[in-house]
Amino acid sequence: MQKRTKIIIHIGDAKTGTTSLQKLLNAHSHELQARNIFYARAGREVEHAIAHHALPISMWAQTSKTDLMSLPSWAALRLEIDAMPDGATMILSSEGFSSMSEEWPARAMAEFFATENVQILLTLRDQTEWVESMYTQNVKASPFALAPFEQFQRGVVPKGITAAMHLVTSFTPEAFKILFYNENIILQLLDFIGISDLFSSDADAGTPQNTRDPDALIEAFFALNKIEMPAHVRDGLYATIQNTCGEHGFKYRDPIGTAKSRFVFTADQRRSFILQHNALINRFCTTFGVHRDRIVKG
């Protein structure tokens, strides 16, 4: 009789509470293991790693003929799965899975997990908020963007649905669930996994830890990006600035009250972007019969 281990693959998308979820699962891995739920170690071999980024990253440089068992992180994952007791659940989480632009990695994953019961969880966000958040992230962290927001947003493509289309054709529509980002997204993710009760006393468990930096701070980082310096020096400098602002409670001052964010869409742009995004999600869910909890509201 084949072992039917349950594998939950949380594929992101980025900026939808993924880091908050990964921190919780990593910090409570021992409590999870007591319930026969394993937050895989394979794919997190780098010291202090909280997400399984090594699994998707290892596939990016390969070809369609690659056997995942030839990749060290995937071989280690297979050993870990085979060592689990029958009926156990394993959780994998990495935004890297949502960046798959080709179909072959999805097919390879389906072959790798052929004897397991796989559930794939995709979290999406209002694409206008997502683009704005991704831009500020790209300014304050690698690749330390130099392009203005207007140029950045024109080149953005919703990656999560593209990856999902590849995965759903390789697995099954029943294996998919889409959740949409909101202030309770972490509790919804934990509930989907079946462990929300484990965090009922954790005051921070239900709230995504993504916070928006003031535009004034992002503008300062944007200006500093034009000064050449090693990436690790820039990382340290920006972290120091952010920590200092947080520790001392510095606020962005706008005494006249007329400041307008440079890093947001206009009302017409937002409406158009959301309509396009909803149409794409509707087409995906209708075509493949994928379950969704709700549609993004414009």
Instruction: Return the string of H and E elements.
Output: EHHEHHEHEHHHEHHHHE
Helix content range: 40-55%
Q: What is the overall silhouette?
A: globular
What is the rounded distance between the termini? Answer: 49 Å
Main-sheet strand order equals 2-3-1-4-5-6
Strand-residue proportion: 5-15%
In short:
The chain contains twelve helices and six strands. It has helices at residues 18-27, 29-33, 54-60, 72-82, 104-112, 127-140, 149-154, 159-170, 185-193, 215-224, 231-248, 267-288, and strands spanning 6-10, 37-39, 89-93, 117-124, 176-180, 291-292.
How would you describe the overall organization of this protein?
This protein is of the alpha/beta class. The chain has helices at 18-27, 29-33, 54-60, 72-82, 104-112, 127-140, 149-154, 159-170, 185-193, 215-224, 231-248, 267-288, and strands spanning 6-10, 37-39, 89-93, 117-124, 176-180, 291-292. The radius of gyration is 20 Å and the shape is globular. 34% of the residues are buried.
Question: What descriptive keywords fit this protein?
Answer:
298 residues; alpha/beta; 6-stranded parallel beta sheet; 12 helices
Chart the SSEs and their pairings:
Blueprint: E1 6-10, H1 18-27, H2 29-33, E2 37-39, H3 54-60, H4 72-82, E3 89-93, H5 104-112, E4 117-124, H6 127-140, H7 149-154, H8 159-170, E5 176-180, H9 185-193, H10 215-224, H11 231-248, H12 267-288, E6 291-292
Parallel strand pairs: 1-3, 1-4, 2-3, 4-5, 5-6
Helix pairs in contact: 5-8, 8-12
